[in-house]
């Protein structure tokens, strides 16, 4: 059965999980032919290797082979085709299997990983992994008190798989201004931020599979706040300089520097 995916701007973790689940039909099959224009890949070593497992970590799709693994990152506008090919386009990586079927990846980064994947990746920080550890995420957040909320959610060492859509939607859902610093966000809100990063990712996956994802966006690319009915703000914020969409009325900017000293001191006690 053919399965294709159109280009998407910076695919996020849930989209890669969908790809992983679709590509798992090839587990156990043997690569019969490999080609592509990706540099640094030993294409000659691929034929004859069985695909041991298809895994993912955040925005990385991982094809585990006996000699090494292949890491595919779809970057900003990557795409793939399963059991079909993209017309008039040369893939970065194309795999044909002896038992039938093919995997084709376009406009993406492909790298070889020589080490065992369990030594390279910390599965505990992948928001969609069974090994996800929310307490670890909370500790890592608290270790970076000056980090802005808009940057924190995009830190792949804390929330692997979270992208710009999830960032904007989670902050809007929790009524947190993107320029709030981690140290100023109340403990209950910070714990909810960790919880929602994972919960919204699974909702994202469900909506995307049902082809209704955009219908559920409340802030991302929207113009009017659905709560306040006023124009949303839009800017490239933080160190990441990714687009943020937020409401100045209902998303609170936590900022201890802007409060009277007595209030700030009281919070520390």
Automatic annotation (TrEMBL):
Keywords, alphabetical: DNA damage, DNA repair, DNA-binding, Endonuclease, Glycosidase, Hydrolase, Lyase, Multifunctional enzyme, Nuclease
Domain Formamidopyrimidine-DNA glycosylase catalytic: 11-112
Keyword Hydrolase set for record: yes
GO molecular function: class I DNA-(apurinic or apyrimidinic site) endonuclease activity; damaged DNA binding; oxidized purine nucleobase lesion DNA N-glycosylase activity; zinc ion binding
Cross-referenced Gene3D superfamilies: 1.10.8.50, MutM-like, N-terminal
Reactions catalysed, as given in the entry: Hydrolysis of DNA containing ring-opened 7-methylguanine residues, releasing 2,6-diamino-4-hydroxy-5-(N-methyl)formamidopyrimidine
EC number: 3.2.2.-, 4.2.99.18
Protein's GO biological process: base-excision repair
Family per similarity comment: Belongs to the FPG family.
PANTHER family: FORMAMIDOPYRIMIDINE-DNA GLYCOSYLASE
Protein name (database record): Endonuclease-8
